[in-house]
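pipeline/complex-builder :: batch 7 item 3
reading input block
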Amino acid sequence: MWGRSQGDAHRAGAADYPGRMEIQGLPGRLLDELGPAIASGEIPEGAVLRGEDLEERFGVSRTVVREAVRILEGMRLVASRRRVGITVQPKSLWDVFDPMVIRWRLAGADRPAQLRSLGSLRVAVEPAAAALAARHASDDDRRELSSLAVELTVAAREADLTTFLGYDIAFHALVLRASGNEMFAHLGDTVGAVLTGRTEYHLMPHQPEPYAIRLHREVADAICGGDAAHAERAMRTIVTGALEELNQQLG
Amino acid sequence: MWGRSQGDAHRAGAADYPGRMEIQGLPGRLLDELGPAIASGEIPEGAVLRGEDLEERFGVSRTVVREAVRILEGMRLVASRRRVGITVQPKSLWDVFDPMVIRWRLAGADRPAQLRSLGSLRVAVEPAAAALAARHASDDDRRELSSLAVELTVAAREADLTTFLGYDIAFHALVLRASGNEMFAHLGDTVGAVLTGRTEYHLMPHQPEPYAIRLHREVADAICGGDAAHAERAMRTIVTGALEELNQQLG
DNA sequence: ATCGCTTCAAAGATATGACGTATTCAAGTG
DNA sequence: CACTTGAATACGTCATATCTTTGAAGCGAT
């Protein structure tokens, strides 16, 4: 009815995308130019682009421009109207949860505001995710979480910030995934982007604070032990701490 | 540099979209068919669609099919690859925060799971939003919130479920917006969809419970008075109650 | 001078034909 | 049996033509 069903077609596909997967082809190239320019405010809201101009400016055909614009339209970054052109929508209409939009804003002038928003979101979501994980996590997840907490500690002790960052991202992503809530799980990549951005932001001056490390182990232990309240409390301490540190850094 | 800037171009536009704005034109029509079919699982993950088949099936041209597929690709619902076709991506890759995807899933077979996910998200986010609103809300927002709480109470007393639903949606959306966090604010429409879906789900058998109504007034009063802790607590009671009721309804 | 209708043209929306290109699958070869 | 190679396939891109919508100019009447 709906085309041949290849039940295992996605098996190989899942391995092909080691994290993020971009839109490909020429429309993707166009997106990489327009998206950041709009998301960062370089092209201000209310600005009007003409499809024909974009064709010339980027030396691509109508087809390519239209498809790229369609994608931007799907994110609510722009709206295309006859006789008017392609207008940049007001920020309040943007799909601020779209991973691409988040990435573009993190990379541009909106970075502080985006970090703040995400910080508050983390404070709201991650403790709840930790509590759910303490109840619903699989045995495998608990084991891996415990393992990650250990490797986190080791990397911190050795002041190896790069691998520490990797384990930190994996830790938070795993907690979110283990919560069993698909929406929480999808924030894993976003949190990863925040942690990366934060590390880049203050140029890795400090080594990870021992207190924060201990809290991570506490979260892992609580989740492994099924202590939802404890997991939630420890995770809340982590993320509120991160938010305060962020506010301090940003003034 | 980036096209003429029409600073007030969005003023009229903002009024044109009274809630949701769809993709328009023939691609939009195609999306309304394919999106729900994929989101509901009617077209299973791993299924392969051919562009040419879609052209025939819907009687539209390549242009239209390609643009619709590009939008679906932007939501990570499908991926288009040469020589293989348009494959439906595994659920774990979908942009589950995309408002369109949420709406499609709420309308289809995935509705219970989607309601559960959103219920947990509400429990995480809305109390935090209420706390932030108590600190950052503008005077206008506080006034309107208070007013909404009153009208909510009246509608509940008169057992007018339809207008009650409207005020309830407006109330929660306002709290989220008044939090000052753009990401929270964008969950307003989603929460509205949940409340609507919930009301439709158990076929409006009960009148709103007086206890829940009182809690809404409590939230409004706490936010107006700047009592963040109280606002957060009352809101948490509301959303956890809603989640429990939901779990009871769904078994 | 203002209002309302008509007319025109700008710009996107759609359709279509042609060609490019990557990828799969299978035939062929060692 | 493993490897190479080639052809078929389905998406990717370009170019062009036509249609549709709609903002704005033009114009007449009140």
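note: Chain A touches chain B through 69 residues (CB under 8 Å).
queue -> next item
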